[in-house]
Design brief:
Structural class: alpha/beta
CATH class of the largest domain: Alpha Beta
Strand order of the largest sheet: 2-1-3-4-5-6
CATH topology of the largest domain: Rossmann fold
Low-confidence stretches: none
Strand content: 15-25%
Largest sheet: 6 strands, parallel
CATH superfamily of the largest domain: CDP-glycerol glycerophosphotransferase, N-terminal domain
Radius of gyration: 22 Å
Oligomer: single chain
Amino acid sequence: MGKLLTISKICVKQIIRGCVGLLYKVLTLFPLKQKAVFISTRSTGASENLTPLIEELQRRTITLRIVEYNGKIATNLTQLIKTPIFFMKMLYQLATARYIVIDDYCLPVYLVEKRQGVEVIQVWHAAGALKKFGHSLKQIPTTTLQQYEQALISTHSNYDKAIVSSPAAIPAFAEAFQMPPENVLALGTPKTDVLLNPEFKATSIAKCDRFFKKINEATKRVVYAPTFREINRKRERFTLPFKNIAALYASLEQNNLILIVQLHPYNQKQWQVPQEYRKRLQLNRSHMTTSELLVASDALITDYSSILFDYSLLAKPMAFFMPDIERYQSERGFYDDILEKLPGEILQTEAALCEWLSKCDVEVASHVVSFKEKWFAETPGKASVNTIDYLLRQKTEDNLLKGE
């Protein structure tokens, strides 16, 4: 019975895959249009990484039409029926747009034989290169169905260019996307541009004062932003990784701190703060964007999240709570010797975390500066301009080739 079910699932996937390919071929009969389509599949809200590009493009005097799509979409074939309209719209744009700009895994891109003249640009949502991803992960399928789907979907394919934060990130992204290094461009990470904007900082602090009020003038706000976890390719439900929340809360009280928990987009709406701890342990329920929180906070605690690269631009204290570091290292892995060069302490116990909270307002170590310079080079605050400049140069070259 189990084998029969597996065979039927494989057949369904093959049929869907064939239908998608056929539909795309039909859609390519429509003329190719001078438009840039920005697609984010991370959430239904505006993308922090693509929105700055859209705004920069709108500031230019151009004849390039701008289209934006934001929405969660399936990561495997049989789930496509959950978002058929959104998927169909993206497939149409992929067949008719001169430029497709994405910021994450995007299933429709991997299912088609891309039309000539369509350029797909991957502006990955994360700066730097910490944990392995994409083809850097040597994942071995554990079931026949997983093995078949891995062969059926060529993930991270069809990219013409990838945009990264600095030259130091190029080798990792070239490996992760199986791209020639020369097609990985160190133009910056657009979402980090606002972090260095004084006006954005002022409005973010005011917003933080409204949603996460200080208990008194001396209160410091610390952001805790963990990444999501996976077991056998399935995302785990988020739980606060502290066995003794009472001890953590006591440390927050003793050091006059508020800990703001910023969940990963994949973990939203999966955890609640216990009622008795809500005075100093608070959850960001979409009140503020991640960038706003980073700018308004006094310190950061994270683990394996790329948010650490963003925060290094601000030269504030940070620490890395990694009680499961050995398991994460064996299951996921990291690039090169990055763990040895993190801009903060690695904390593996709750006692160590509480001790760090007592000194999190000390002067930032000097090596944070060298870390920032390595992973952002000369791009801080200029990523959106750099990326749009590249895109418009491509458009100009197209016009020259056409004799326009």
